[in-house]
Each structure stands twice: as structure tokens, then as C-alpha cells.
């Protein structure tokens, strides 16, 4: 099987010949290729080169094309900082109150330089790999997460408690338009799958009730839009998601990418037969700072849990740090390749 075929098998609930591996490793790929993040984010050819080198080195099945977590925020007018050696970041929102939502500039993600660079890199990778490696185009933030960037996290949390829901939904509607535009761009660029992160919607920030009222409905809308475009959708939420897994499944995502803090046995039980699980090796404590032996042990434990469940894609629980030793990544991948079902 090719890498593409392995991931397609997982999506279809069919047993692949080997465990599918799709790495969220853009920071490590940049570091190992000898580029800075400044060079990476500004040139689609460099982005493609970094991932091509990583696939050739580690022989995994699926690329997660990612550059930062603030591209949509920047496209919507949020002030973005561009460190030379780190991914871009934002520090504060642009809305003094929800009353200013109507004053936001019309959403036009296609006019934002970095969104176009991101998508052009996807096209270059699709051309290079000729359908043998699966290409996941990460589409930055889901609507709720993007809303926290436009309003500011603390302000947004206060708004949820004190403001009229209609005002909150107006901002979320605006953010949905931004997210859905990026998804269409990724589809047109040739991505095999699209994805969003929505970590501020998780239990570390929101109660399950608030998640169900404000974040989940928009995750559903985004997922439905991706499916209208006939492309699989993956949702990522950091932290321990045990108490919202049942709700997350109802968003309709083909894949849920969950953090290592989530109870893997519970997730496997809840998602079995309906939703692919992607993850969830600890990217810092195990991959970046652990020993190869620890990596092999944790990978084997995870593989054992999914031994008779083909709806599984091996990955870290979140983005892999740039300082991760190559021997640790080799240990994870070799363990998966040698695993017998």
C-alpha cells in the first residue's frame, strides 16, 4: 500500500497493511531542513521542500501542511508578530466590544498573502508526490478559536457569560465565513483532507454546556461545508477532552485528533466504528524529551489499544517540537512499521 492508500483505508474502516502515520511535524521539518521559520512561511517552495525531505527521511504516509495558528486571524485584521525562528503569533484582539463586529472588514481570505502561500505549498506537494502520500491541508482555526483571537481570549470568555448570545453568534458567523473560505481554498489547491484546530473550545476553557452552545454548532457547520466539497474533515482540540468526546463525535468529523491528556481507552470505545482517531503520543514529554525506549513503549501501548480497530492514524497529540531528536521519531515510526496485527 502507498501512504495515501493506508490513510484512505483508515477513513474507510478497512485494515491497512501497516499502521498509517500522518505527522504534525512542520517545526521539526523546518529545523532539519536548515531553514528559519521566516524563510519557511514566505516561500511555498521552501515549505514543500521541508516536507519532501521529512517524508524521504522518515518514510511516513501523510503530510500535515501547517505554518502557524494565526493565518486566519491575520487575514481578518489581527496584528500578527512574525519571529524569525518561531511560528507567527498574535497577542491581542482587535475588537473592543462585540458591538464592533459589524465594523470588521469583509472576509476575503484569498487576498491574504500567507493563506495563498500555504495553499500553493499544498499544490506543489500534490504534484511532487503524485498521489502516493496523503496531503492534509490544515486550515488554521475553527470559528470559535478564531473568535477568541479577534476579541481576545479573556474578553471572549467574559462575553459568553455577560453578553447577549446574538452578539456572540454574530462574531462566530463572521469567523465561520473566514474558516469556510480557507477550506475552499485548500480543496481547490488539491488537499486530500482539511482540518481545523479549536483548542480554546476544550474543557480547559469552556464547560461542556458552553462548548455545546457556542463551539460545537460551528464545528458542525464547517464539517458539513467540507463534506459538501467532498473532502474529509479533521478536528483537533488540545487538552483532556474526556467530558466532551460524545459531543465532538456529533460534529460529523471523519477524524478527531486528540491530545495525549485524553483517556485513550475512553476515546477508542466512544469513537469505534464511526470516527477515526488520530494521535496521540505526547509530543513534548515523550517525543521531544523522552528516550527512544520510552517512545517505543508508548507507541506499542497505543498500537495495542487499536489492535482490532482500523480507524486509527498514528501521530503525536499535537505539533511536534523542533527540538525532537530524530532517533525518537525513528523509534515511533519503526515500532509502528514492525507492529503485527
Protein model, in words:
The chain has 15 helices and ten strands. It is of the alpha/beta class. Strands 1-2-5-6-7-8-9-10 form an eight-stranded parallel β-sheet, with helices on both faces. It is globular and about 55 Å long.
SSE map:
Elements (H helix, E strand, L loop, with lengths): L2 H10 L9 E2 L2 H8 L3 H5 L2 H15 L3 E4 L5 H5 L4 E2 L7 E2 L22 H17 L4 E8 L1 H9 L1 H10 L2 H25 L3 E5 L10 H21 L4 E5 L7 H5 L5 E4 L5 H8 L4 E6 L1 H6 L3 H14 L6 E5 L9 H13 L3
Parallel strand pairs: 1-2, 2-5, 5-6, 6-7, 7-8, 8-9, 9-10
Antiparallel strand pairs: 3-4
Helix pairs in contact: 2-4, 4-6, 6-9, 7-8, 7-9, 9-10, 14-15
Q: Would you tell me the overall average pLDDT?
A: 97
Give the radius of gyration. Answer: 19 Å
In the sheet with the most strands, the strands line up as 1-2-5-6-7-8-9-10
How many H/I helical runs?
15
Number of strands: 10
Distance between the termini: 16 Å
Features:
341 residues, 10 strands
Put the structure in a nutshell:
Helices cover 50% and strands 13% of the residues.
Amino acid at each position: 500500500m502507498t501512504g495515501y492508500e493506508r490513510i484512505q483505508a483508515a477513513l474507510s474502516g478497512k485494515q491497512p497493511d501497516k499502521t498509517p502515520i500522518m505527522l504534525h511535524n512542520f517545526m521539526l521539518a523546518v529545523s532539519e531542513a536548515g531553514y528559519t521559520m521566516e524563510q519557511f512561511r514566505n516561500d511555498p517552495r521552501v515549505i514543500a521542500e521541508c516536507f519532501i525531505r521529512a517524508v524521504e527521511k522518515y518514510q511516513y504516509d501523510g503530510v500535515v501542511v501547517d505554518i502557524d495558528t494565526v493565518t486566519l486571524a491575520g487575514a481578518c485584521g489581527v496584528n500578527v508578530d512574525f519571529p524569525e525562528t518561531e511560528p507567527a503569533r498574535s497577542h491581542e484582539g482587535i475588537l473592543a466590544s462585540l458591538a464592533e463586529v459589524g465594523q470588521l472588514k469583509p472576509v476575503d481570505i484569498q487576498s491574504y498573502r500567507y493563506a495563498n502561500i500555504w495553499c500553493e505549498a499544498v499544490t506543489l506537494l500534490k504534484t511532487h508526490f503524485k498521489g502516493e502520500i496523503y496531503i492534509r491541508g490544515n486550515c488554521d482555526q475553527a470559528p470559535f478559536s478564531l473568535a477568541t483571537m479577534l476579541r481576545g481570549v479573556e474578553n471572549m470568555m467574559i462575553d459568553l457569560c455577560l453578553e447577549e448570545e446574538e452578539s456572540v453568534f454574530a462574531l462566530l458567523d463572521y469567523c465561520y465565513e473566514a474558516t469556510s473560505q480557507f477550506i475552499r481554498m485548500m480543496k481547490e489547491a488539491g488537499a486530500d483532507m482539511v482540518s481545523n484546530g479549536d483548542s480554546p473550545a476544550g474543557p480547559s476553557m469552556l464547560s461542556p454546556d458552553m462548548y455545546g452552545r457556542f463551539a460545537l454548532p460551528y464545528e458542525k457547520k464547517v464539517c458539513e461545508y467540507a463534506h459538501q466539497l467532498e473532502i474529509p474533515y479533521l478536528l483537533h482540540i488540545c487538552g483532556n477532552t474526556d467530558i466532551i468526546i460524545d459531543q465532538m463525535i456529533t460534529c460529523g468529523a471523519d477524524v478527531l485528533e486528540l491530545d495525549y491528556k485524553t483517556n485513550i481507552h475512553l476515546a477508542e470505545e466512544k469513537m469505534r466504528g464511526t470516527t477515526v482517531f488520530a494521535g496521540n503520543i505526547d509530543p513534548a514529554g515523550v517525543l521531544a524529551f523522552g528516550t527512544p525506549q520510552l517512545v517505543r513503549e508508548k507507541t506499542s501501548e497505543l498500537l495495542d489499544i487499536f489492535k482490532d480497530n482500523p480507524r486509527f492514524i498514528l501521530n503525536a497529540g499535537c505539533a511536534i517540537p523542533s527540538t525532537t531528536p530524530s532517533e525518537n521519531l525513528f523509534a515511533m515510526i519503526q515500532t509502528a512499521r514492525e507492529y503485527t496485527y
